Q: What sequence folds into this?
């Protein structure tokens, strides 16, 4: 402990280089020139009814939304997170926007506006099936509506339902009615209530009993229109003994004002089922001065029944402000919950993210691996809850939270809540912080590796445990994303 | 909306006589206390700490008088076997002169006896204390009803030749009552002191007192304080205590906390590393049983570079008792080269017992080494097997290992004599008397 | 003394012992040698009743009693003592308190009163001296901060205190310098008794220069593949184990 302190980034040259490296350009920051059908700003019961009518929803769905809206009116925006931002003016937002050419809905990809297809191609997500990475079905959500879902026929053969939730309300009302809001109730929290009232689209997945979904399912979200909020809603039901891996990616154009994204994701893993949910979140983070960027206020939660397993993996590099806690309610005996997270913040980004593991059943197990990387003037917080209820005999949790600080202007924080009410439950929590030291950099450079590559290597090594949890297709993307964040103009 | 407790406590303000020079701080305290919202589950700092023990009573009865009859018991309660110390004994918050050898020391001054200079020094300290982080409504209450207290000053380059023990003993009474206790400690440059604060009960019936203690400590350049805070009050009492420590350049602070007594124990500890080179080392043990609630809230502030802190708390929670531990490490923007570590380990013995622990890091400097760990665990299987393989039953192995789990911290105390004194008290909790006397063990040199 | 017949055991679903037979009469010393991974340490752990070692077939009786049905502490009280290869450290639990609890538990099983603390201390001081450790080790936490050699001597000291009828020494010689090795050997030899038996598990022959066994067995792949007198140990030292494995 008393050794000579390690010098850190006191070398102005190294400092400069690192600074350069973080001056990344936001690659997905283009705006698509697409004519849209956008509702005037403002929120009231009529707007909720309008959205519901636009979707041709049945009465029960409209009532469900109205109930959520009325709850929302009584709620206040939460302020306990370690983030500071100007609260959005909810009356200044538009709650519905759809590309105009979609008014009647495309029957097939051939009918999709070519500009839209080009947008997705620019994002590296070709929607033409022949161009797709083998074995990934994609649902693309543009502003508020789903524009294309690929591979539906092949999935249908296996009995897998993968479609926009707006469509599921019509085609599978029994499933939607049975499960919607059971994991995240309408009045769960401020943003969830808002989402429940105004959600416009999102993905719906149902995997029948005993079925192993034949391909990876994937949704790409894109906010394009200015001054719109995006409120998508995802519902995934894995019936007994089934298995599904689901990927989610998000981008938005560079705009000066803050845009709101308030999604809700509900996962239901019935007995012996397994759901793997991976996210690469690259919403526009705002510019170097902290102007613009997405407010990402998301509620994600899963229920795992007996012997079921739910695994959340997230790579969070985007958004101006992130407020997100993908959680697991381990309801059945032997249920397993996992949370693997890499959150990188730079410039003025703020992230308050983590998970909740609620152990209800016996011998339930959870693992939390969180890697936070703070650079620039950003603030990066892990917030987690591990709760062992009085019936959680033999339950176990292992949590590891590591923070890497790059530069002396940023912050890294850890707020773990640990509650145990069972003597046989075992909880282990560890947290550490570290930095990229001059010594490490010098060693690399002395061995011929430039600073840029060295930092990238160190950061990648730091995130390794999480990256290995990502599906192959996403691991590549996540690697590229971090690379982008870490590499300067030299490339 | 003020609770009955708050209303009744505010009435105490008018009922206590205090010198004029304390009036400004009392006024500030009572205004803040009157305005403070009563903590609920939604108040982050009190999330897991229910105050229903307090809210259920008003604690405003008259303080029972000291009677000569129980002097022997009081003296016994204040004695730490084998430790030669200066003593200050407060019975229900009032000085017991016969038992207080420390009154003869020039370093120890009661507020009521303070001269003008000392009054000014006290007033300044009291005002500073109001600025501390983690200030809460019970600190306001402490100021509001302040009419006495102890000021300990150890001058430059000096030290007391023996530890100073401040022992607060409550006796219980017909109706629940409140005891306000305030201690100010100033260690000037190069000064050194061992301070033992003990909270105990001597009572034929239940000790139904509520103790509101606050101890504010300044440790000057290169000064050194060893500090014990030991609560072994009866289980009907309520205790809320704060200790705040300001460390100057190269100052050294070592502390041990024991949470053994009271129905409700809440202890806030704030250590401010204000200037470079200071070091703090804090350990603590809590072993609530029955329906006790013990809450330790610690906050280590690193506001300057090149400071180190190390904190270890361990708890064993039995019956339907509950323990709360909140350990915060806050590294300020310029506190480079900080080394800060925290460990909190817990054992639950029954399925009615509860632990809520929250180790927190808040870091605004990059060149630091910080780590915390928290566990809620069962005993080590290997150790248990080792004991069983030597013929010891599983149940006895459990007890031995549980005791060992906290005894490890007693073994590490800077004053072994205090460990020796506490060991049987703790062993009792586990229904286990030590097999050997201290003398027998000591003989094995 | 102990009779082991067709013993099969597995660890984490992996079979380790695959039909081991061994008969030891009172007063005998048996050495068990064998290559790494043969199951030598498993034997000691299975006999002592460690969790995670599952007996799938066979029997083991100590003085006519089926020990496999007993809890670990009951086996110890029946007179079985395992000197661990890696004794665990138990900070906070003093050696003295630990030993007293152990001695009293075993005495209680034999229908005897607990030893009073004065007599206990007298005996403990005697034994700790016999293994060449300072008596201050009695005050310290069990094995806490002890060196490898000190831990082994502490094991031996416990063995002397408990006076078991069957002593199993699990690679007690590993990591010991020659002085410590002699202390251990001297202790074991001093404890030799017509009513006490020893199983010495070791990888090397050198301990057997000091503790002369009555029998030497070679354990390979979970079975005893060769048995002989003390000269077998020398043969193994010379030739290694590979020639046996091809035979087995």
A:
């Amino acid at each position: 402990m008393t050794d000579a302190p390690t010098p850190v980034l006191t070398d102005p040259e190294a400092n400069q280089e690192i600074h350069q490296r973080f001056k990344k350009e936001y690659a997905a920051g283009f705006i698509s020139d697409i004519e849209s059908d956008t509702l005037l700003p403002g929120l009231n019961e009529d707007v909720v009814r309008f959205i519901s009518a636009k979707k041709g929803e049945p009465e029960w769905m409209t009532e469900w939304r109205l109930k959520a809206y009325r709850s929302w009116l009584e709620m206040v925006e939460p302020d306990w997170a370690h983030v500071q931002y100007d609260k959005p003016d909810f009356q200044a937002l538009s709650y519905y926007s759809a590309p105009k050419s979609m008014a009647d809905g495309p029957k097939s990809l051939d009918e999709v506006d070519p500009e839209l297809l080009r947008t997705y191609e620019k994002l590296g997500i070709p929607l033409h099936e022949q161009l797709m990475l083998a074995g990934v079905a994609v649902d693309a959500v543009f502003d508020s509506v789903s524009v294309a879902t690929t591979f539906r026929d092949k999935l249908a053969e296996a009995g897998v339902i993968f479609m926009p939730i707006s469509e599921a309300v019509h085609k599978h009302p029994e499933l939607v009615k049975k499960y919607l809001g059971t994991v995240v109730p309408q009045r769960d929290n401020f943003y969830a209530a808002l989402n429940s009232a105004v959600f416009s689209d999102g993905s719906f997945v149902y995997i029948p009993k005993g079925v192993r979904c034949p391909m990876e399912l994937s949704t790409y979200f894109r906010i394009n229109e200015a001054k719109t909020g995006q409120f998508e809603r995802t519902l995934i039901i894995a019936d007994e003994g089934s298995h599904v891996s689901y990927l989610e990616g998000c981008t938005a154009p560079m705009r000066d004002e803050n845009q709101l994204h308030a999604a809700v994701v509900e996962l239901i893993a019935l007995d012996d089922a397994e759901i793997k949910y991976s996210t690469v979140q690259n919403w526009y983070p705002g510019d170097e001065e902290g102007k613009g960027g997405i407010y990402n206020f998301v509620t994600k939660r899963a229920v795992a029944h007996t012997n079921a397993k739910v695994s959340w993996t997230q790579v969070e590099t985007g958004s101006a402000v992130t407020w997100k806690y993908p959680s697991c309610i381990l309801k059945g005996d032997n249920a397993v919950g996992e949370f693997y997270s890499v959150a990188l913040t730079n410039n003025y980004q703020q992230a308050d993210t983590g998970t909740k593991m609620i152990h209800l059943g016996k011998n339930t197990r959870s693992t939390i691996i969180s890697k936070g990387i703070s650079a620039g003037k950003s603030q990066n917080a892990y917030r987690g809850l591990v709760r062992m209820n009085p019936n959680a005999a033999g339950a176990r949790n292992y949590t590891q939270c590591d923070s890497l600080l790059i530069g002396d202007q940023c912050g890294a924080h850890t707020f773990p809540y640990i509650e145990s009410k069972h003597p046989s439950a075992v909880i282990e929590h560890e947290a550490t912080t570290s930095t990229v030291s001059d010594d490490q950099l010098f060693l690399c450079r002395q061995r011929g590796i430039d600073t840029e590559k060295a930092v990238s290597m160190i950061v990648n090594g730091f995130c390794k445990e999480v990256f290995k949890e990502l599906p192959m297709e996403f691991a590549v993307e996540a690697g590229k994303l971090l690379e982008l964040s870490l590499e300067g103009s030299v490339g | 909306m003020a609770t009955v407790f708050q209303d009744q406590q505010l009435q105490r303000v008018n009922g206590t006589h205090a010198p004029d020079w304390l009036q400004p701080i009392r006024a500030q305290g009572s205004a803040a206390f009157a305005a403070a919202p009563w903590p609920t589950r939604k108040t982050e700092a009190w999330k897991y700490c229910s105050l229903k023990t307090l809210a259920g009573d008003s604690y405003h009865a008259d303080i029972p008088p000291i009677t000569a009859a129980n002097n022997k018991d009081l003296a016994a309660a204040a004695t730490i076997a084998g430790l030669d110390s200066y003593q200050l004994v407060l019975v229900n918050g009032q000085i017991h002169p016969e038992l207080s050898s420390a009154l003869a020391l020039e370093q120890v001054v009661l507020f009521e006896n303070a001269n003008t200079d000392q009054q000014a020094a006290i007033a300044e300290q009291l005002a500073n204390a109001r600025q501390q982080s983690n200030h809460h409504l019970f600190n306001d209450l402490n100021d509001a009803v302040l009419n006495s207290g102890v000021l300990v000053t150890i001058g430059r380059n000096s030290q007391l030749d023996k530890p100073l023990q401040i022992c607060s003993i409550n006796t219980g009474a017909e109706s629940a009552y409140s005891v306000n206790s305030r201690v100010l400690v100033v260690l000037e440059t190069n000064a050194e002191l061992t301070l033992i604060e003990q909270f105990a009960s001597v009572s034929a019936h239940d000790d139904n007192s509520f103790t509101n203690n606050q101890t504010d400590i300044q440790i000057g350049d290169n000064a050194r304080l060893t500090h014990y805070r030991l609560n072994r009050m009866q289980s009907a009492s309520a205790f809320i205590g704060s200790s705040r420590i300001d460390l100057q350049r190269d100052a050294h602070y070592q502390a041990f906390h024991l949470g053994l007594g009271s129905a409700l124990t809440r202890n806030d500890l704030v250590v401010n590393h204000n200037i470079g080179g200071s070091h703090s080392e804090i350990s603590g043990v809590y072993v609530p049983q029955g329906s006790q609630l013990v809450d330790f809230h610690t906050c280590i502030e690193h506001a300057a570079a090149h400071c180190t802190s190390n904190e270890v708390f361990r708890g064993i929670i039995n019956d339907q008792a509950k323990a709360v531990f909140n350990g915060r490490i806050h590294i300020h923007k310029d506190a480079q080269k900080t080394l800060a570590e925290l460990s909190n380990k817990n054992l639950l013995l029954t399925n009615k017992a509860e632990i809520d622990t929250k180790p927190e890091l808040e870091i605004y400097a990059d060149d630091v080494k910080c780590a915390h760990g928290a566990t809620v665990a069962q005993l080590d299987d290997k150790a248990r097997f080792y004991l069983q393989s030597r013929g010891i039953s599983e149940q006895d192995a459990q007890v031995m290992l549980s005791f060992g789990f906290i005894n490890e911290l007693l073994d590490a105390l800077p004053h072994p004599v205090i460990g020796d004194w506490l060991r049987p008290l703790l062993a009792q909790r586990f229904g286990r008397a030590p097999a050997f006397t201290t003398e027998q063990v000591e003989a094995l040199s | 003394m102990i009779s082991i017949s067709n013993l099969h055991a597995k660890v984490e679903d992996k079979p380790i012992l695959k039909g081991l037979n061994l008969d030891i009469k009172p007063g005998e010393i048996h050495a068990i040698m064998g290559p790494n991974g043969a199951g030598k340490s498993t034997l000691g752990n299975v006999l002592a009743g460690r969790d995670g070692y599952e007996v799938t077939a066979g029997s083991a009786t100590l003085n006519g009693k089926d020990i496999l049905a007993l809890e670990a502490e009951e086996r110890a009280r029946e007179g079985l003592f395992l000197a661990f290869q890696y004794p665990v450290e138990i900070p906070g639990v003093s050696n003295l308190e630990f030993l007293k609890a152990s001695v009293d538990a075993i005495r209680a099983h034999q229908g005897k009163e607990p030893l009073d603390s004065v007599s206990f201390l007298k005996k403990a001081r005697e034994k700790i001296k016999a293994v060449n450790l300072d008596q201050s080790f009695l005050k310290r936490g069990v094995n806490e901060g002890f060196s490898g050699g000190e831990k082994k001597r502490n094991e031996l000291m416990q063995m002397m205190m408990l006076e078991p009828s069957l002593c199993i020494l699990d690679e007690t010689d590993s990591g010991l310098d020659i002085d410590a090795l002699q202390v251990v050997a001297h202790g074991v030899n001093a404890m030799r008794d017509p009513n006490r038996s020893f199983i010495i598990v070791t990888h090397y022959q050198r301990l057997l220069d000091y503790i002369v066994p009555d029998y030497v067995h070679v354990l390979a792949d979970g079975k005893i593949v060769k048995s002989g007198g003390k000269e077998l140990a020398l043969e193994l030292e010379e030739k290694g184990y590979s020639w046996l494995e091809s035979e087995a």
About this structure: Chain B has ten helices and 19 strands.
